[in-house]
Amino acid sequence: MKFESYIFDLDGTLIESLRDLKESCNYALQSCDMPTRTLEEVRMFVGNGVKKLMERAVPDGLANPRFEEAYAIFRQHYLHHNLDHTAPYPGIMEMLATLQANGKSVAVVSNKFYAATQQLVRHFFSDYVSVAIGECEDIKKKPAPDTVMEALRQLHKPVSTAVYIGDSDVDIDTAKNCGMPCISVLWGFRDKPFLIDHGATTFAATPADILNI
């Protein structure tokens, strides 16, 4: 464990949340008389925040006159149902406990909207994660470096001893824009060929692998 600070993505990295995202997405689509999406479609829609998820899921995206209605329904439904099926991936809790036992600082930075990020991190990881930042109106979201830099500021840690861990191309770009290394996990929403195509160079096949990088 050569790093002092570990900054984690949330969905697809710490938690398996795809089913709840899909069900809230389809609830919103059905409520607005729009066709629903499959689990694999939603898998490819996530990674850039829930507004982008709905932009991709709604026919014609932002140009659809009912887009804002569908997006608002999604947000409300997800806040009440984001724990229906979501859970940490196997090995995550043990990995976080080991980081804590070794005096490491841990933060979560997500493109999920702020209230849901706070709720999920507080529910699952309050013993291990001291800083959690979701999408904020006044801070540019990933892949811009702003939210990661804010997390490091709150941790009182420099970027020079930090690593970013995520499961997507957005996370790879975020780490690059922060000037920090990235560990790409292989249990998340994107497979290894996709990650390699988008510049990934360091991989963790299990949460325990993160401890040995």
UniProtKB/TrEMBL annotation:
Keywords: Hydrolase
Stored Pfam families: HAD_2
GO molecular function: phosphoglycolate phosphatase activity
InterPro entries reported for this sequence: HAD-like_hydrolase_sf, HAD-like_sf, HAD-SF_hydro_IA, HAD-SF_hydro_IIIA, HAD_2, HAD_sf, PGP-like_dom2
GO terms of biological process kind: DNA repair
Superkingdom of source: Bacteria
Pathway: Organic acid metabolism; glycolate biosynthesis; glycolate from 2-phosphoglycolate: step 1/1
Residues annotated as signal peptide: none
One Gene Ontology CC term in the entry: cytosol
Reaction it catalyzes: 2-phosphoglycolate + H2O = glycolate + phosphate
Enzyme class: hydrolase
EC number, as in UniProt: 3.1.3.18
Family to which the UniProt record says this protein belongs: Belongs to the HAD-like hydrolase superfamily. CbbY/CbbZ/Gph/YieH family.
PANTHER family named in the record: PHOSPHOGLYCOLATE PHOSPHATASE
Protein name: phosphoglycolate phosphatase
